Amino acid sequence: MNRVFRITAAHAVPDGTLVAPFLNARDTTSGLPFDLIEGFSLAAGTIAPHSQSKIHVMPFVAQVTFVRHGALTVRMKAAADRAPYVLVAQADEAVLTAAGTLVQLINETGSPCEVLYIVSPAYVFEQQEGGIRYDDSVVLDEDWDTLAANGWRTSRALPAVEQRNEALLRLAATEAALRPL
Fold it and tell me: Which residues contact residue 172 at a Cβ distance below 8 angstroms, ignoring those fewer than 6 apart?
């Protein structure tokens, strides 16, 4: 399926940012064949001026956040880190977030920050009947102080790898059922 892929209309995601998955065959909203590519996925995102995402964690995927326009502050904490730390990326710079790292995207400027999310392996997102059935990102309600006070334990259970694998099987089966004979 050699073709040009275009960024489409973005939609709000649970962390409070806007995302347009334009090259992700493992996302039910992309309309791409499930077996197109599995090693990575690509989505465009926008972080509104003077806003921040909720803190979230992606247990199974690493993410490169490439800043296309604007500036982005990224607060992160991996399991081995004693405390959160901040990285600032300008246009044409990127930040790597390893799997299992707590992360928050912050736009401290008065202009939108446009980014590309390059995720490996491909980000899995399964939407069914208007609801989210599986999402590789777990969005937290806690702030950094609450997480620190709780010993960095989250109130939300992280999915097991079996849940991710089940979502992949459902996505593959759904795509196969929709394929013309």
Answer: 34, 35
What CATH architecture applies to the domain 11-176?
A: Sandwich (2.60)
pTM of the full predicted structure? 0.87
Closest CA to 116 of 24, 54, 52, 50: 24
The pLDDT tens digits of the residues spanning 148-167 come to 999 999 999 999 999 999 99
| Exposure class string for 150-179: b at 16+ Cβ within 10 A, else e | eebebeeeebeeeebeebbeebeeebeeee
pLDDT of residue 24: 73
The DSSP string of 1-19 is ----------EE-TTSSEE
> Token digits for 120?
């490996």
Structure tokens at 126: 């399964």
- Residues 136 and 141: their CA atoms lie apart, in Å, by 16
